[in-house]
Amino acid sequence: MTAASFVTSSIGLLLACTFGYAITTYLISSLPRYFRWALAPGVGLGFCSFIFVLFRRPMFTIEAALAVPALWYLFRHKAPRPTWPPVLTLVLVAAMVLAAAGLTERVERIPHGEWDGWAIWNTHARLLFRDGSNWKNDIKYSFHPDYPLLTPAATARFWRFAGTDIPEQGALLGVVLALSGAAVVASTVGMLRGTTNGVLAGVILVSTPLYLQHATSQYADVPLSFFFLSTIALICVYAELNPDKRVLVLAGFTAGCAAWTKNEGLLFVAAVCVALALPVLRMGSKLRARLIPFGTGLALPLAITIFFKVAVLGHSDLIGEQTNTFGKLMDLSRHTQIVEFSIRALRLLGQSFGQWSISVWVPLFLFILYRGIDRRAMQNPGYLTGLMTLGIVTAGYYMVYVVTPQDLAWHLDSSINRLLLHLWPSALLLTGLALKHEERGKGMIYVKS
After folding, report:
1. Which phi and psi angles does 373 have, rounded to 5°?
2. Could you tell me if 118 and 10 are in contact, meaning their C-beta atoms sit under 8 angstroms apart?
3. Residue 153 lies in a domain
4. CA-to-CA distance for 292 and 298, rounded, in angstroms?
5. Interatomic CA distance for residues 380 and 313, integer angstroms
6. Distance CA 71, CA 59 (A)
7. Cβ(171)–Cβ(113) below 8 Å
8. Which of 156, 184, 174 is nearest to 254 (CA)?
9. What total number of domains does the chain contain?
């Protein structure tokens, strides 16, 4: 990557972050600025991917036109004076800097990413970048044409800023969202359970080997995990701190970005809707109070995702090649194989914590043991919604394996680690939120929703 392309890509990223921060500030202005900044890169890159796919050639004109009111709004918005972060926060910053340095070195070693990175996601990005208006027809003949386009569109947008398709730039999205994910975990847990808890949770995430590996693989799994995480974080914050319904609007938008990132995101959207609806299903007013704002934020990304699915008509091998579904459901050996693979994958998730020769489960267990569990926090509706969402998604993943038309051993071996990666940051967030507050005697802030 040349110095010129690095500068132009940085401009593209800065502009996306500006859009993201303007959106988060408008929707959740009452929440701390560090939380809005943690969400801003993902929100902005998702928003810019919509602009790229919808407008394509006049992308620069559209973004420039939108940048003016965004900057004007941020200029007019009165923000409190910035304060120096607690000293403990610098530990998280140092961990993120070290992670970024290691990720940069890894990008230099594998500039094209791993197998799916260049075979699927970057192939789709090149069609968006090079193929003009023919991309909708030609993408049908690519590998997995039905995969949504947030990652390819964001990559192609970086290439538009650079003027050429430089392979290393495809990793920029993964690196940025991996570090942003750690910031979201740390800021959410820190805001609700204290700075120490937040920093420890963030450090554990940014030191998870599989998480860092896929930050540069140019797959869509780390971006998907970011949008899972952000949605659940916003729902938890809404339930505990902020009754403003616009928090749920932003949660709907990030859930929609998950659907726009991978097919698994559609399952996540359904899971969140069920988890939001079930506790108040018989109370129409409360149901509308939850689902209408969430659906408002969800509308644009979900509409674009459905449009893409309808326009492209991509073939899904998991659906189109189904055979003997009932027999597979009744086959006990398949269930046993899936459970055994899952246990093995959980062991491998944190095989070595950062550069230490210990499992990530060791510091996590010590973290829980040191702080203690707050049962009242685990009964909060936001926490229960997040837990139910992950439970439904996990059950959905499990059923896909049970009925898969592919060879089960191959399918498990090639994907189960990445499916766990989708859930890991959100699971770590919920673990942090189940802990007692670091200040003795300080209770959880509870707001009925």
Report:
1. -95, 135
2. no
3. yes
4. 10
5. 42
6. 18
7. yes
8. 184
9. 1
- Please tell me the pTM assigned to this model: 0.93
Count, residues in the chain: 449
Q: How far is CA 320 from CA 121, 124, 216, 323, in A?
A: 22, 21, 31, 9
Asked if residue 241 is part of any domain, the answer here is yes
Q: Could you tell me the two tokens for 373?
A: 């569990």
What is the rounded distance in angstroms from the CA atom of residue 101 to the CA atom of residue 52? Answer: 30
- CA-to-CA dists, residue 441 to 199, 373, 438, angstroms: 20, 14, 9
Torsions phi, psi of 91, nearest 5? -65, -45
Cα–Cα nearest to 247, from 236, 256, 257: 236
* Distance from chain centroid for Cα 310: 24
Helix axes of 332-349 and 381-403: crossing angle, nearest 10 degrees: 120
Cβ atoms of 154 and 199 closer than 8 Å: no
Over its length of 449 residues, how does the chain's per-residue pLDDT go in tens digits?
677 777 888 899 999 999 999 999 999 998 999 999 999 999 999 999 999 999 887 889 999 999 999 999 998 877 666 566 677 788 899 999 999 999 999 998 998 999 899 899 999 999 999 988 888 888 888 888 889 999 999 999 999 998 888 888 889 999 999 999 999 999 999 999 988 899 999 999 998 888 999 999 999 999 999 999 999 999 999 999 877 899 999 999 999 999 999 999 999 999 999 999 887 766 666 778 889 999 999 999 999 999 898 877 666 666 666 677 788 888 999 999 999 988 888 877 666 655 556 677 777 788 788 778 888 888 888 999 999 999 999 999 999 999 988 889 999 998 999 999 999 999 999 999 998 887 644 544 434 33
Give the type of residue at 192.
Answer: L
Closest to 46 (Cα-Cα) out of 272, 254, 222 = 254
| Per-residue model confidence as pLDDT tens digits over 62-110 | 999 999 999 999 988 776 665 666 777 888 999 999 999 999 999 989 9
Kindly report the backbone phi and psi dihedral angles of residue 323, in degrees, each rounded to the nearest multiple of 5, phi listed first: -145, 145
Contact 439, 194 (CB under 8 A): yes
Q: Is residue 445 part of a domain?
A: no
Block residue for tokens 């449009």: 307
Which domain covers residue 415, as residue numbers?
A: 3-78+85-433
- Within-domain flag for 447: no
Amino acid at 371: R
